[in-house]
Amino acid sequence: MMRGAFVTLAMRAGFGKPRPAWVIQANPWGEPTSVTVLPIPRTRVAAPLLRVLIPPGAENGLPPPSHVMMHETMTVIREKLGSAFGRIDADARGEVER
Question: Which domain of life is it from (predicted)?
């Protein structure tokens, strides 16, 4: 699991069905037992400082509309994550990291 990957996250009880998430934890030393992610809900909210739009694309595999929830950083156990299905592109990554 590498930084920049999009994965499916099985949210804890009460938060609904599995959703996409963006891995923000770098992985230079092997496979960690926990991974830090930013969830990507399908619900649109007018909060441009808290949610950054990620346009759909062949490289990322995300459905539209997709907004990274900057204010909901979470660390989850690795078993809650599905396999990577895409990667964030340089432009979108720059928007999230600014």
Answer: Bacteria
The two tokens of residue 6 are 């999009």
Global pTM value: 0.82
Return the number of other C-beta atoms located less than 10 Å from residue 85's C-beta: 13
pLDDT tens track for 3-52: 899 999 987 665 668 889 999 986 667 777 889 999 998 777 777 778 88
Residue 30 gets the label, from left (phi > 0), alpha (psi -120 to 50) or beta, of: left
In the chain, the number of structural domains is 1
- Indicate which CATH number applies to the domain containing 9: 2.30.30.110
Angle at 25 between CA 22 and CA 28, to 5 degrees: 130
